């Protein structure tokens, strides 16, 4: 695969990291300006509240990815773009948004200030980004980064997205998909458990 094609597809998946911070920011703003208490005083449960945050994160992620994909299409035009591939790519982006949105909620619940949230989330997401296959093939990096990339969900997001969009299914496709599903729902479960203990 030509590097411009590899990079263009990876750059689209970068949007799930940016969009993931939306979840933490929404929670912080709601708590800071008193909206969290008002929402909970209405006919809404905490489960509905966190579901709405995650849903908005997924929608922002898909919209951002769609815009990025529109710019990347001239580079990706040589690939095998099929309806099934777009479905795989869409599901992949949803799972990635679920993971990073949930992670941002965990940070938002645990940290006491919005400044600390911004600093920590920027650093952690930077680590996720540069130990993944978004910008370069993992098999061409130092062994230590290769090991980290094996548990990095962003690697799976980028590789599954490329597989769906370009029709290049790697040998470990099923493993990557299962790993991404497990990591995304595990992080979502952690976010829900921590969110139940949050005080308005």
List the helices and strands and how they pair.
Blueprint: H1 3-13, H2 15-32, H3 35-41, H4 46-76, H5 83-110, H6 114-130, H7 143-149, H8 153-166, H9 173-196
Helix pairs in contact: 1-4, 1-8, 2-4, 2-5, 2-6, 4-5, 5-8, 5-9, 8-9
Overview of this structure, please?
This protein is mainly alpha-helical and 200 residues long. The protein has one domain (3-196). It is built from nine helices and no strands. The chain has helices spanning 3-13, 15-32, 35-41, 46-76, 83-110, 114-130, 143-149, 153-166, 173-196. The longest helix is centred in the first third of the chain and has 31 residues, at 46-76. The chain starts with a helix and ends with a helix.
Please sum up the structure shown.
The chain is mainly α and 200 residues long. The chain has helices at 3-13, 15-32, 35-41, 46-76, 83-110, 114-130, 143-149, 153-166, 173-196.
Number of helices: 9
Based on CA atoms alone, the radius of gyration comes out at: 17 Å
What is the share of helical residues? over 70%
Judged by helices, strands and strand pairing, the structural class is mainly alpha
- What characterizes the major β-sheet? none
- How many beta-strand runs? 0
N-end to C-end Cα span: 50 Å
Shape summary:
globular
How many distinct domains?
Answer: 1
Low-confidence spans: pLDDT under 50, at least 5 residues?
Answer: none
The secondary-structure element order is: HHHHHHHHH
Please state the average pLDDT score: 85
What fraction strand? under 5%
